[in-house]
């Protein structure tokens, strides 16, 4: 595709439900990032993949959050037993390289609302 | 704190230059400085990045202080379409860590 694609665009979950958010990065991009953005705030880093390796998961807020990228392309962010504080926009970004001298391309995000 | 510091909001008149400041006093030698902008209900969009030297591209210019503790994004002629939240970001690249560390951003309003 032409850009980073995320699905679904919107998700409403009942508290306690598990959710899975999908990210299709730009083909061939080595790096993939997940971010959480609360209303009116800047995006907060969650985790980073270099190909299929999850090299940095320091931003995951709890063990209810889990991310994978098994074949080095599509990635899934899973949230177990969702809580109201998980309500946010979840952004995925990919970049061709693995250093700061390359731009990152962001998807439009998945808006998660936990009721 | 690894986050950058920016003014919450700025205003500019259309067709005039805009200078958006950013402080990143804790930046390390390998961190790149990136700028992105975000429209409502959209993901952030890349604007420009640099390490030490000033940078120019078709969208903007980036002026980096000699000590790298601050930078300024310059939009040479603001248009109504430039109204957005502008984020100054440290791209942390250390060992296996890779993070774009966002601040709270500057809401730019462009007046016709």
Spatial separation of the terminal alpha carbons of chain B:
37 Å
How many alpha or pi helices of chain A?
0
Rg of chain B, alpha carbons:
14 Å
**Could you tell me which chain pair has the largest interface and how many residues each side has?**
A-B, 28 and 27 residues
Q: Give the fraction of residues assigned to helices of chain A.
A: under 10%
What is the count of helical runs of chain B?
A: 0
SS-derived structural category of chain B: mainly beta
Q: What structural class is derived from the secondary structure elements of chain A?
A: mainly beta
| Low-pLDDT ranges of chain B | none
Look at the structure and give the mean pLDDT of chain A. Answer: 96
Which key phrases capture this entry?
heterodimer, A: 115 residues, mainly beta, four-stranded antiparallel sheet, globular, B: 112 residues, six-stranded mixed sheet, 10 strands
Would you mind describing this structure in some detail?
Chain A contains no helices and 11 strands. With 115 residues, chain A is mainly beta. In chain A, strands 2, 4, 5, 6, 9, 10 and 11 form a 7-stranded mixed sheet that branches. Chain B is built from no helices and 10 strands. In chain B, strands 1, 3, 4, 8, 9 and 10 form a 6-stranded mixed sheet that branches. A 4-stranded antiparallel sheet of chain B has the order 2-7-6-5, with no helix packed on it. The model of chain B has no long low-confidence stretch (mean pLDDT 93). Chains A and B meet through strand 4, strand 5 and strand 10 of A and strand 3, strand 4, strand 8 and strand 9 of B.
């Amino acid at each position: 595709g032409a850009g980073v694609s995320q699905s679904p665009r919107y998700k409403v979950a009942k508290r306690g439900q598990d959710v899975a958010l999908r990210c299709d990065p730009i083909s061939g991009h080595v790096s993939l990032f997940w971010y959480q953005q609360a209303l009116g705030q800047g995006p907060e880093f969650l985790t980073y993949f270099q190909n299929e390796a999850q090299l940095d998961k320091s931003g995951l807020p709890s063990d209810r959050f889990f991310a994978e990228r098994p074949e080095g392309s599509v990635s899934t962010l899973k949230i177990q037993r969702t809580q109201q504080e998980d309500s946010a926009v979840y952004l995925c970004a990919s970049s061709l390289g693995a250093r700061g001298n390359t731009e990152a391309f962001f998807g439009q995000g998945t808006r998660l609302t936990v009721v | 704190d690894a986050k950058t510091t920016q003014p919450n909001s700025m205003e500019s008149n259309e067709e005039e230059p805009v200078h958006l400041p950013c402080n990143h006093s804790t930046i390390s030698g390998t961190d790149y400085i990136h700028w992105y902008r975000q429209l409502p209900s959209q993901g952030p969009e890349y604007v420009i990045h640099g390490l030490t030297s000033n940078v120019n591209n078709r969208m903007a210019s980036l002026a980096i202080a000699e000590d790298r503790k601050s930078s300024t994004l310059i939009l040479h002629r603001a248009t109504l379409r430039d109204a957005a939240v502008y984020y100054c970001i440290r791209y942390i690249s250390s060992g296996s860590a890779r993070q774009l560390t966002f601040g709270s951003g500057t809401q730019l309003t462009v007046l016709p």
